[in-house]
Design a protein that fits this description.
Elements (H helix, E strand, L loop, with lengths): L10 H9 L6 E5 L2 H10 L3 E4 L12 H11 L6 E4 L6 H9 L4 E2 L6 H30 L16
Parallel strand pairs: 1-2, 2-3, 3-4
Helix pairs in contact: 2-3, 4-5
Length: about 160
């Protein structure tokens, strides 16, 4: 509702939103294993691992917590989407390799949108897809669902 005051959302509040709709409910801003499990327990169908492009200063980078969240949600019917700083197909590959089901793009697509509108966006997303395909072909994965972290160098 426009004008509604922002407030901390309790588990009861979130449960009531989830139960009020038949649509799959996604929860954004998850940054820990504990939060991810709580979302699953409340009935979320997906979580978005995100710090809302740095809205929360000094927040942990989403990619850093992704593997732990993936493990914490093993066996649960909850999709994992990640965002923040994704700008290329190689970035998307790393997200998938670290446990995400999908990656979302924010600010990096804005110049294409501003300059080229729908055409610009199509070009941008096609470029991301093509680069993802290229990295997959170089690392021996033919399906998105097969991508794992075997070709990532972790330090
Ligand atoms: C102009 C702008 C407005 C945004 N508004 C919201 C918002 O209202 N709610 C929200 O959850 N995230 C908001 N975001 C964050 C994005 O949904 C997304 O999490 C973020 O942009 C991803 O990081 P990236 O831009 O580095 O890809 C906003 C981002 C931008 C750039």
């Amino acid at each position: 509702m426009i004008g509604e005051q922002m407030a901390v959302q309790t588990s009861d509040m979130i449960r009531s939103y989830i139960e009020s709709t038949k649509l799959p409910f996604f929860i954004k801003g998850v940054l820990s294993e504990e939060e991810a499990v709580k979302c699953a327990d409340l009935g979320a169908k997906a979580i978005i691992v995100s710090h809302h492009h740095g809205r929360l200063p000094y927040a942990v980078p989403p990619m850093m917590v992704l593997p732990g969240i993936k493990k914490a949600l093993e066996g649960r019917d909850v999709k994992i989407i990640v965002d923040c700083g994704i700008s290329s197909g190689a970035d998307v590959y790393k997200c998938l390799a670290l446990g995400a089901d999908a990656a979302a793009v924010g600010r990096s697509m804005l110049p294409s949108l501003e300059e080229g509108g729908i055409e610009g966006m199509t070009k941008f997303l096609t470029g991301v897809n093509n680069e993802l395909r290229f990295v997959m072909s170089c690392t021996g994965f033919s399906k998105i669902s097969e991508i794992d972290d075997s070709c990532l160098q972790m330090s």
